[in-house]
Amino acid sequence: MAGRPTTWVTNGVVATPHYLASQAGLRVLQMGGNAIDAAIAANAVLHVVYPHNCHIGGDLFAIVWDPSKQELQGLNASGPAVSGATIERLRSLGYTAMPEHGVHTITVPGAVAGWFALLERYGSGRFEMGALLQPAITYARDGAPLSFRLAAYLEMVRDRLAQDPGARELFFTGPPKRGGDIFRQPALADTYERIGRDGAAGFYSGPVADDIV
Questions:
Q1: How far apart are CA 49 and CA 106, in angstroms?
Q2: For 10-26, what is the mean pLDDT?
Q3: Collapsed DSSP state (helix, strand, coil) of residue 128
Q4: Confidence band (pLDDT; 50, 70, 90) for 2?
Q5: CA separation (Å) from 82 to 95, 107, 155?
Q6: pLDDT per residue as tens digits for the range 107-128
Q7: How far apart are CA 152 and CA 201, in angstroms?
Q8: Does residue 40 sit in helix, strand or coil?
Q9: Predicted TM-score (pTM) of this structure
Q10: What pLDDT score was predicted for residue 1?
Q11: DSSP 58
Q12: Which of 144, 147, 132 is nearest to 192 (CA)?
């Protein structure tokens, strides 16, 4: 029976769908962080190298074991619909069912708020958010090898993404992107740096929020 061998560890393990994210989380553990610190660092890197799976423009859900209380806690950091997205408004635009694509499918992204909620309540206290985001900033600024899976996904959704000017410039400028190519996202690096410097407000207000709108 084919499969991966059992992994045995004594001081913590990090599992993600991309090795760079797992490495980032493991480094945090090795530097004295706890599971929440590591999860935030790993999740932020995933947003850079595995955006078809999760992204800063999405939501966050977490299940956390609180050893001090011997309790299992859950966090639902899914953002609300925007204030103008009422049933009446959608019906007035001719929709009879919830649209699957476009601006009217968007909710306020909850991932960043979820990071701060987790760090404040369950973090080790050894890391500021900026430090946990640093690996993601580095990969976004300097580039990371494009995974074959992401490269294939970009081709699959090319027609849809190319309708958006920002996505078209990021993903489809120059030669076709292939697995192993170094892929840089400087604007995303800027956003992470702003979050690390200004907190959640750096994402939910100011230039980043204006650009999203």
A1: 22
A2: 93
A3: coil
A4: low
A5: 17, 6, 30
A6: 899 999 999 999 999 999 999 9
A7: 35
A8: helix
A9: 0.91
A10: 53
A11: S
A12: 132
